[in-house]
Amino acid sequence: MDPDTTESQSGSPPQPDRGFDLESRLEARQRHGLRRELEPAADVSARTRIGGESQLVFAANNYLGLATDSRVQQAAASAAHAVGTGSGASRLITGDTELHRELEGDLAAIKHTDRTLLFSSGYAANVGTIAALDPDVIFSDELNHASIIDGCRLSDAETVVYDHCDAESLATELHTRAETAADDEQWLIATDTVFSMDGDVAPLAAICDLAERYGAWVLVDEAHATGLYENGGGLVQREGLSDRIDVQIGTLSKALASQGGYVAGSETLIEYLVNEARSFVFSTGLAPPAVGASKAALRIARDGECRKSLWENVETLRDGLESMGYRVLGETQVLPVLVGDRADAIALDERLREQGIVAPVIRPPTVPDGTSRIRVAPMATHTEANIDRCLTAFETVGTNLELI
Ligand code: PMP
């Protein structure tokens, strides 16, 4: 008999339980080693206290260390005083201020585009833009960030996933699809520029060549590149491809030291998004302190001193780790130290932590089996002594665990 219709002893039908058994869902996560926990730090500096212990942090995306730079902090405070702590409404109602326009202008200059538009996060920028473009087909790198993946889902487009950073795989997919496609189909190729778990970069010029051959648009996510390359721009600017990429998306939450996302592109693209991107239209304008902070951070990133320190730290760490016998993937500021075995990588992460170094383990399902790694993300504000301590810890722990 259907339990929902069973009569109880009192004669009244029992209430069906239509609630959510979250305890068992969490327990399942725990059993599979996928349960995550929050762990507050005292602040977001390169050296901070976590769980009462002093730690050197090699795990943040605050790559230039500007989130605790006094000039950026001052700019956030001034914006709060001059404009307010929150925007109070969507930009299309009363949440639009001169400060928002100023940052959008600065970002457009750095990204070499007509205009930019601020969103409440990089996530909202990706999801809102892809859905608003409403493509018929999206060609998406297999390791794209979750916000691109969610944008693809929300847009209802047919999504074709091509092999990671593989222009040949993309060419094959475009060719195959073109054989049966109607001429009026609208196609989007979407890729991160710097991949945050592998530290590698998309073959942007080859992607632009293919897009032009097949008449598709290109959308890139510069989240882990913005602020770090030419004049504070991203990888697109380093490669000189600003004119060939239709949509450049990024975040203010990493090198630009605050919170929020942006889309850079043509006047028409931005005007369209102002009208059609639901995560822009129906969300409160970015908080003025975040806007003020990123405006100051962008100016500092453009001047270049902190970028130089970051890249020096990256080089010292990469060289040091490689000379110990570690294999370091990628070619950017993200240094994934390949360990392979999941248990070894977890042990390395734990022992580093005991030595006062926070550098998180990245393991399946985030990365494929056999490719577990430690993600080391240096910051411009790590001192020479900090970098030395990190290297010493890797050497001691790696030797003890017989990894090197
Ligand atoms: N894109 C990429 C590649 C990211 O790594 C992230 C953040 N982890 C985002 C987008 C989302 O940006 P935000 O944190 O500003 O929402």
TrEMBL record:
Its EC number is 2.3.1.47. InterPro entries: Aminotrans_II_pyridoxalP_BS (IPR001917), Aminotransferase_I/II_large (IPR004839), AON_synthase_class-II (IPR050087), PyrdxlP-dep_Trfase (IPR015424), PyrdxlP-dep_Trfase_major (IPR015421), PyrdxlP-dep_Trfase_small (IPR015422). One of its GO terms (molecular function) is pyridoxal phosphate binding. It is an enzyme of class 2 (transferase). Keywords: Acyltransferase, Biotin biosynthesis, Plasmid, Pyridoxal phosphate, Transferase. GO terms for biological process: biotin biosynthetic process. The keyword Acyltransferase applies. Pfam families: Aminotran_1_2. Residues 1-12 have a biased composition (Polar residues). It catalyses: 6-carboxyhexanoyl-[ACP] + L-alanine + H(+) = (8S)-8-amino-7-oxononanoate + holo-[ACP] + CO2. Residues 1-24 are annotated as: Disordered. Pathway: Cofactor biosynthesis; biotin biosynthesis. Its cofactor is pyridoxal 5'-phosphate. Residues 55-393 form the Aminotransferase class I/classII large domain. Belongs to the class-II pyridoxal-phosphate-dependent aminotransferase family. BioF subfamily. Homodimer. This is 8-amino-7-oxononanoate synthase.
